[in-house]
């Protein structure tokens, strides 16, 4: 049914058509995608039936535990939904490119904002609806009609998370401006996505309390009348997912209220934020005066300063690169615990993270060079420029590794030396692979570089895995009481790492 032109339903139909076209619905090159997804979705129904048709019914005394588990799962999914909502809100505000057209049209701003927020909500919920759909449908087929409530819970939960994400995005626009909001929102989005990983490692990171003390504290909270008792209101979301009518209606009502509140009280500011994002002109700074001491520097220093300055001028790119360091936090705390039994895993983790960071910087510095023709036409030696670019990509990751590697050396000399060898070799291999395999590309393709340069990505993964495995096995072989098999396997992983370098060098001409 077609909506009235200019109405929210009419705009939503347009958004759904755009979503269909962008995902290969009418594209000849990608016309195979929707049928393949449909076949896979039907296959998931068969897998769900094979598991659920023999599953016994849940006893009544286990419903409280199931509600608690369902609530915990919703909290976990909520972090990912909020992260996706932030990304979608930033795209809606800054990346779509149709803002000026919509604002100059006679469409009411309320309809525009309602549809944009609704599209963000549907986009966030679509993945979880698609994954949970086969299980829900099979459950209903087997007689569990109450499982239909999961559809409503997912939509309601996605609505709440998306509305909060949009409100946060608009608040950032008011506080720090539209230009900085894009960077900050994406950083918060990535942190929210990694929060579950960091929380899962909290006990291993801090070791502040013993398992007995934690168990005693949770028993007091879970006791009847406690904050987390089975009949507490805290678990209402889980009871809604299990088909509880009152909790379900309350959750849906909260979602509708949050959605309407966001639309009613922020659509004027939404327009103001969009106008700011498309019309705000950055103030031109007067050119800095050149001091006499700026000339006469060595070429290596000039190139290093130039590369780091260009990266620092792009905070959005910096945020994407440095978000990899979030996963260094648990590893860093584990290193400080200095337990010899976990040293092989620490070495492998440090090597993989350092190599990944080096590969990202190498791609930015080598492949995404803004003025390659200018460098080629300069009187400087090409070898010196390449060496400086490698240094610009290697120095930051190695500098970040100084603290954990120095601590490892202080705790155990042999283990620390093997860690240093692994990390330095992994970084050097990633930098050389990026240098040999890098193809010119704009910096805007940083997120999608793995798709456009598949061979380079595979060789980088092969090399980092080889060096990580080498460090893991060498440290195990150096530990007391170990046999020689670890050293032999270390030779194999070392050969894999060197083979990746050889392949990268051998295909450098075809890679450009």
Class from secondary-structure proportions? mainly alpha
- Uncertain stretches: 280-284
> How many separate structural domains?
2
What is the string of helix and strand elements? HHHHHHHHHHHHHHHHHHHHHHH
Radius of gyration, in Å, reads: 27 Å
Q: Tally the helices.
A: 23
Strand content: under 5%
Helical percentage: over 70%
**CA-to-CA gap between the ends?**
53 Å
Principal-axis shape equals globular
Strand element count: 0
Main sheet, how many strands, which sense, barrel? Answer: none
Summarize model confidence as the mean pLDDT. 77
Observed structural traits:
512 residues; mainly alpha; globular; 76% helix
Give a verbal description of the structure.
There is one protein chain. The chain is an all-alpha fold and 512 residues long. It has two domains: 8-279, no CATH class; 299-511, no CATH class. It is built from 23 helices and no strands. α18 packs antiparallel against α19 (413-437). 31% of the residues are buried. The model is unreliable at 280-284 (pLDDT under 50).
């Amino acid at each position: 049914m077609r909506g009235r032109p200019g109405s929210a339903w009419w705009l939503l139909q347009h958004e759904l058509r755009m979503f269909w076209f962008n995902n290969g619905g009418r594209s000849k090159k990608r016309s195979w995608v929707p049928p393949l997804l449909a076949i896979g979705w039907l296959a998931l129904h068969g897998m769900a039936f094979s598991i659920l048709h023999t599953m016994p019914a849940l006893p009544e005394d286990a419903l409280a535990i199931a509600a608690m588990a369902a609530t915990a799962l919703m909290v976990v999914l909520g972090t990912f939904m909020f992260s996706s909502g932030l990304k979608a809100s930033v795209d809606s505000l800054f990346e779509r490119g149709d803002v000026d057209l919509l604002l100059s049209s006679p469409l009411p701003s309320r309809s525009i904002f309602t549809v944009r927020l609704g599209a963000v909500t549907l986009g966030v919920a679509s993945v979880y609806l698609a994954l949970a759909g086969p299980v829900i449908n099979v459950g209903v087929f087997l007689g569990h009609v109450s499982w239909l409530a999961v559809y409503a819970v997912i939509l309601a939960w996605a609505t709440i998370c998306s509305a909060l994400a949009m409100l946060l995005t608009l608040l950032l626009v008011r506080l720090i401006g539209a230009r900085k909001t894009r960077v900050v929102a994406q950083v918060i989005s990535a942190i929210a996505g990694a929060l579950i990983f960091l929380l899962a490692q909290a006990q291993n990171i801090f070791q502040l309390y013993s398992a007995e003390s934690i168990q005693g504290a949770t028993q007091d909270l879970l006791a009847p009348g406690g904050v987390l008792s089975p009949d507490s209101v805290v678990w209402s979301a889980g009871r809604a997912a299990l088909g509880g009518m009152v909790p379900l209606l309350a959750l849906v009502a909260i979602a509708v209220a949050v959605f309407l509140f966001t639309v009613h009280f922020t659509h004027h500011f939404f327009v103001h934020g969009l106008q700011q994002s498309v019309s705000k002109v950055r103030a031109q700074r007067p050119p800095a005066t050149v001091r006499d001491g700026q000339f006469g520097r060595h070429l290596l220093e000039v190139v290093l300063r130039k590369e780091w300055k260009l990266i620092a001028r792009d905070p959005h790119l910096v945020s994407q690169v440095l978000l990899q360091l979030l996963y260094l936090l648990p590893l860093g705390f584990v290193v400080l615990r200095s337990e010899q039994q976990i040293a092989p895993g620490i070495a492998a983790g440090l090597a993989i993270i350092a190599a990944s960071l080096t590969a990202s910087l190498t791609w930015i510095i080598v492949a995404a060079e803004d003025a390659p023709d200018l460098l080629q036409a300069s009187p400087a030696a090409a070898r010196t420029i390449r060496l400086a670019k490698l240094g610009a990509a290697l120095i930051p990751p190695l500098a970040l590794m100084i603290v954990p590697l120095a601590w490892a050396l202080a705790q155990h000399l042999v283990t620390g030396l093997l860690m240093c060898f692994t990390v330095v070799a992994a970084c050097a291999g990633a930098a050389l692979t990026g240098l040999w395999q890098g193809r010119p590309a704009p910096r805007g393709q940083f997120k999608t570089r793995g798709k456009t340069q598949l061979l380079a990505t595979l060789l980088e993964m092969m090399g980092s895995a080889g060096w990580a495995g080498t460090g893991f096995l060498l440290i195990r072989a150096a530990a007391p009481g170990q046999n020689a098999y670890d050293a032999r396997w270390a030779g194999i992983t070392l050969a894999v790492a060197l083979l990746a370098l050889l392949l990268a060098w051998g295909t450098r001409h075809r890679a450009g």
